[in-house]
Structures are given as structure tokens and as C-alpha cells.
Amino acid sequence: MKNYVRSGVLVAVAGAFLAVTAGAAKAEYPDKPITFIVPYSPGGGSDQQARRLVPGLEKHLGVKIRIVYKTGGGGAVGFNELWRSKNDGYTISNVVVPNIVISSRGKDVGFEPDKFAYIGMTARAVGAVMVTKDSKFKTIGQLVAAAKANPGKLTVAGVGSTGRVNWGDLAEDLGIKLTYVPVSGGVGKMIPMLLGGHVDVGMTASNHATRHAAKLNTLVLAGSGKGSGVLTGVPNEARWGYLTTWGIMAPPGTPADRVAKLNAALNKTTRDPKVAKIVTDNGLQQVWQTPAEALDYVKDSMKKYANK
């Protein structure tokens, strides 16, 4: 009888041990869906990045990823949402450089760009100035002449305060003055404004010029301008330093091992030939980084834009 009881106890203990170890194995990160914050409206570069990455991230992480939009403040609303999120690796966000740097300025912004846990940057594009196909401006020279003849009367749309800074650099180089119209929701809202004739000119990253080439003409690209074959022949403004870079980040204090796992999944995803083709076809340049390299990239941007 004693042996039977003792055996029963051992079986119960063994069963409990197996249950605990099975539970621990099941709890290996990640074991539930991940939320992916897009800080801009659907249709823009951040939304495009999220949608081309999510299938691969789901494959390599083994969980579903849910995209949510938190728009406003030139990205600041979404960045704040991530800043306040639990740092357990189950909430990530798109990040755009230099947008995150420029939108962090001012009183009580709520987040610090260099404190996020960066997973890695994935793609970048140079700046582009665009007009509609029926615009009277067919060259950048014609736009410059009209702007000099009518200072401040022409309008140019860009994304929030970041667009203002980038347009200011080009306007200074060209010696012209246009009235800047900030668009809070991102390029997804800016393009319809341009197509609808609500502004004379649109300024954003070159991948949008590539994507909308059937309806828009590109007058000039940033100095190191590279677009797809669609933008062949577009002149570059040598001194214009516009460069937009997209990536992924997590809340401050996210455990390093979870960041590393997200980074590995991200780099596997971006090296997929199908994803690489989408990036190239849209006039983007691919980027691969470690978390440390991504953080250094943001810090360098903070130095670059410190006085702008």
C-alpha cells in the first residue's frame, strides 16, 4: 500500500513537473499576436513598409501581427503611443528618420528619440518635388522662375514639421519662397491634396514619386537622387540633403534578447527576393542593420538636425 501511495505521489509530481516545463516551453517569446503601430495614414510610406514586412515577420516569428494606425502630429501621436506601451516585445512601431527627431522638439512632446529600442532600419529614399501632369510647371527651372516672380504665392505641401525643414533647405538652395502647407496625416493624405489641385507642388520621398508617376511629374530629386527607371532623367539638386529612412522600433527598455529576435526576423524578411523586388521597384534603397547600428543612425540624425 505504501509503495502504491509513493508511486502515486511520484506520478503526480512528475506530471506537475511536465506541466510546468510544457508551460515554460509554450511561453517562449513570442507566443501571442504582436501589435504594429503605423504613425501615419494608410497609403503612405510607413503603411507600405508595414504591409510588405508583416507577412515575413509573421512567418519568422510564428505569430500574427496586427497593424493599427495612430496618426497625427507628424508621427508624434504614434511615437507617443509606443513610448507608453508595455516593453515586452509585443508592441512595435514603424519609425521614420528624420521625422522622429524633428517631431520630438517642443515642450512636453512626451518621448525621446534616442531612448527607444531600435530593431533596425529597412529602406531609404531621397527627396522629390512633384506636380500634377497638367501643371504649367514642366521643369524645376520654370517653378523657380514663377516662385521668384511671385514670392510666397505658390503653395507646397509636405508632411508636418519634417517637411517644413526639408523644404526649407531646398528653397534656400534655389533662392525661392513658397507657402508651406503641413499635412499631419502623412503622404497618404498629401497626394490627394496635390492631385485635387489644393496645392501647387508636393514634396516628399522619391518612392512616392515612383509610385504615382502615372499621375505626377517629378521636377527634381535630392542631390544623391536615385529612383527607379521610371524617374530616369529627372535632375538632381546637388546641395539638397533630403533623405528619408524607414525602420522598426520597440518601447524603451524592451529586453535585448527580444529585440535581437525581432531583428533576426526583420533581416530575414527584407532579404526575401519578393520583398527586395518591391523595394527596388518603388525606387527605394534597401538597408540592413543591427539594433546598435539603428540607434547610432538615429543619434547621427539628431546631431544633423540639431540646429534646423
Q: What's the name of the CATH homologous superfamily of the largest domain?
A: Bordetella uptake gene, domain 1
The tally of domains stands at 2
CATH class of the largest domain: Alpha Beta
Do you know the CATH topology of the largest domain?
Answer: D-Maltodextrin-Binding Protein, domain 2
Q: What is the overall shape?
A: globular
Beta-strand segment tally: 11
Q: How much of the residues is beta strand, in percent?
A: 15-25%
Oligomer: single chain
Number of helices: 11
Going by helix content, strand content and strand pairing, the class is alpha/beta
Helix content: 40-55%
Largest sheet: 11 strands, mixed
- The residue-averaged pLDDT reads 90
Model regions low in confidence, pLDDT < 50 over at least 5 residues: none
Name the descriptors.
D-Maltodextrin-Binding Protein, domain 2; 2 domains; 11-stranded mixed sheet; 11 helices; single chain; 308 residues; globular; alpha/beta
Q: How would you describe this protein?
A:
The protein has 308 residues and is α/β, with parallel strands linked by helices. It folds into 2 domains: 34-123 and 246-304, Bordetella uptake gene, domain 1 (D-Maltodextrin-Binding Protein, domain 2, 3-Layer(aba) Sandwich); 126-237, D-Maltodextrin-Binding Protein, domain 2, CATH 3.40.190.10. Helices cover 43% and strands 22% of the residues. The protein is built from 11 helices and 11 strands. Strand 5, helix 6 and strand 6 (179-183) form a beta-alpha-beta unit. The radius of gyration is 24 Å and the shape is globular.
